[in-house]
Specification:
The chain is of the alpha+beta class. 18% of the residues lie in helices and 37% in strands. The protein has two helices and eleven strands; from the N terminus they run αββββββαβββββ.
């Protein structure tokens, strides 16, 4: 019934109103579905793997040197000896293992040389990866990562026995500036890995 003049709309007009309301609802539903499909994805999260013995999880922010994103995921230091399938390797000082996740934020692949990454100690000295530990633990010295892909692996460093770690300095290429990932200063018990 029309509130102005007390007249009820004819049957055909009510049908047209129902069709229009149904079309409007269908259009709103279609818009919502398209928006959901095209809406930017939530920020990338790193899949959580279980921590290994005496390893601690890291919550440092990701850094972006060039087209790569580096995340430090876990850390363990104080490792006196490592054992692999074919070798045993005593540390000159103590070994530190940093699990990292590297993602290519670009539509091209990247070749990464891990020999250019540095572990920086509290006193400012910089240490390159320990090649022997990397090989014994079968971690990549160099690797190719595809466009928009990621890789997760360990970097091994041999540092003086009583040294404290400060940060991991990472870069995507020789000669490029590094970005720092802060690391916690902890006392680590001596163990093997």
């Amino acid at each position: 019934m029309n509130a102005r003049n007390g007249v009820t709309p004819p049957q055909g007009a009510r049908h047209l109103l129902a069709v229009a309301a149904t079309a409007a609802l269908a259009g709103a539903l279609t818009t919502a579905l398209v928006a959901t499909a095209l809406w930017p994805a939530t920020p990338r999260t790193t899949p959580q793997r279980p921590l290994r013995q005496l390893e601690i999880a890291l919550d440092a922010p990701a850094v972006h040197p060039g087209n790569l994103e580096f995340r430090a995921i876990a850390l363990r230091c104080g490792i006196a000896v490592i054992v692999g399938t074919h070798a045993e390797h005593p540390a000159k000082g103590r070994l530190c293992r940093i699990r990292i996740d590297v993602t290519v934020d670009d539509s091209v692949s990247a070749r990464l040389d891990n020999d250019i990454q540095r572990l920086v100690l509290a006193d400012g000295t910089r240490h390159s990866v320990d090649w022997e530990a990397m090989q014994i633990k079968r971690q990549p010295l160099t690797l190719d990562i595809g466009a928009h892909d990621s890789a997760q692996y360990d970097l091994w460093f041999d540092i003086p026995k009583d040294a404290a770690v400060d940060r991991l300095a990472v870069t995507n290429d020789k000669g490029m500036p590094t970005k720092d990932i802060p690391l916690p200063h902890l006392d680590w018990p001596d163990h093997s890995a």
